[in-house]
Design goal:
about 130 residues, alpha+beta, Elongation Factor Tu (Ef-tu), domain 3, 6 strands, about 40% strand
């Protein structure tokens, strides 16, 4: 299930001490609840803006963080490939200080294809 090292300390060692480039990336499988974030206007009132996410924390977040240098974009986001069920797509995960990890947005077409609703436990295969 792994394409390269996933241990954050090993990845750091390879990058910093040996100066070696990372392998193509890491692959992790994890499960988490699908949750909904609702936007708010400046005055605190709700808006129609809403996004669905799965939180990535713990060892998977640590491994992504360690493997991210050279693979990141705006606001510290990290480019990833994701598969849920039989549906795959390219996206970015976004760092979150609140969870000491990342947030994975799950777009509407994926939720529809996989019949996912808020609160469902979702098994994710993520590759960087």
């Amino acid at each position: 299930m792994k394409d390269g090292p996933t241990d954050p300390e090993l990845i750091r060692f390879l990058q910093e001490e040996l100066g070696e480039a990372l392998p193509a990336g890491g692959r992790w499988t994890f499960t988490g609840p699908l949750w909904l974030w609702r936007g708010k206007a400046k005055d605190g009132s709700p808006t129609s803006t809403a996004w669905h996410f799965v939180t990535i924390n713990g060892a998977v977040a640590d491994a992504i963080r360690a493997a991210a240098p050279g693979r990141s974009a705006a606001w510290g986001s990290v480019y990833v490939s994701v598969t849920v069920g039989t549906t795959g797509w390219q996206t970015s995960v976004f760092p979150s200080k609140d969870v000491s990890g990342y947030l994975l947005p799950v777009k509407a077409s994926v939720r529809k294809a996989e019949k996912l609703i808020e609160g469902d436990m979702v098994t994710i295969e993520l590759t960087i």
